[in-house]
Amino acid sequence: MPQTPQIGSRGREILTAIVETYIASGEPVGSRTLSRENREGLSAATIRNVMADLTDAGLLEQPHTSAGRIPTSAAYRYYVEQFTGKASLTPQQEGQIAANFQGISDVQEFMERTSHVLSLISSGVGVAVAVPGQRNALEHIYFSHLAENKILAVVVAKSGLVRDRVLRLERDVSQADLDLAARYINENFRGWSMEDLRAEVARRLERDRNEYDRIMKSVEQLYRQGALASEANAAPEIYVEGVSNLVANEQDSERLRKLLRTLEEKQQVADLLSAYLDARQEAVRVVIGLEDAGAHLSNFVLIGAPARVGKEVRGSLAVLGPTRIDYEHTINAVSYIARLFDSILNGADESKT
């Protein structure tokens, strides 16, 4: 991780002013502009000297000889460190964001809405990823006898996802026995992930092999034929919105083409979040300069956090945008939506138990 440059209070004040002015205008910032807005009444010459020191420290750069200065990635990192954990949204701002999630109790719907809300808040790209495993927590299962040796298995997940499949059995099972098998599974495994459910059923079948009763014989045959199978290789649900925000601000056509290709390949977006966000992190992470993922992302920032329900990670949410982004507001919005996710979805899960 790059070392944070050591600058004094005057340098910090001027650097902050340059970063915020550049974020707002997109134009290189000159000493005269700063001297007009400086509350200490510093002269343009004094500010120029401080700017020269900040440039030597790698915090500013000069795009053209006659132009003012613009912040480097190191400057943005320093800027973010100054307010991280010290600022928050106002109650009014929180209320405006929360209003977008009223009535939502499903992970996928929340994530889809999140990508939209983050794109509006940040003027960047809103990204939300729902991990596939959590879609398989069992709400209930139902079996229907269709014909001899042929049944319909319907699995309803806690997320609201419904999956059905037609199975051919080696021997016929009556509707009464199918109902008994479904009741056994629902009473014993409601709320379990399909992966854990299958593992436990397999364990019980092996343990009680010599004591099979009528129910377990039906459960075994249904299990063997895939009634409890899950989408083991299912891709995560990935929601991306706000690509047009980047198109409007990117002048380099070749870089824009590569950027659009990355965003069109949603799995690449999920891989990007996976590479930079750690499921164990508690706070929002800000990654400035994504050149490790591709040269075309060198001037971009990722602001993201895991999405948890309790201690269980259900996905991740982030903003992908240019380094010239409203960091404070975006960081606070990502943090608040992550907390909102826990609050809303935790309540939804509890209401189903």
Describe this structure in words.
By secondary structure, the protein is an alpha+beta fold. Helices cover 48% and strands 18% of the residues. The protein has three domains: 9-83, Arc Repressor Mutant, subunit A, CATH 1.10.10; 91-131 and 236-352, 2-Layer Sandwich (Beta-Lactamase), CATH 3.30.450.40; 135-224, Enolase-like, N-terminal domain (Enolase-like, domain 1), CATH 3.30.390. The strands form three sheets. A five-stranded antiparallel sheet has the order 7-3-10-9-8, with helices on both faces. It has a three-stranded antiparallel sheet with strand order 4-5-6, covered by helices on one side. The radius of gyration is 27 Å and the shape is elongated. The model has no long low-confidence stretch (mean pLDDT 83).
- Morphology call: elongated
Stretches where pLDDT is under 50 for at least 5 consecutive residues are none
Question: How many distinct helices?
Answer: 13
CATH class category name of the largest domain: Alpha Beta
Strand segment tally: 10
The overall pLDDT, averaged over residues, is: 83
Going by CATH, the architecture of the largest domain would be: 2-Layer Sandwich
As laid out across the biggest beta sheet, the strand order is 7-3-10-9-8
* Class by alpha and beta content: alpha+beta
Can you identify the CATH superfamily of the largest domain?
GAF domain
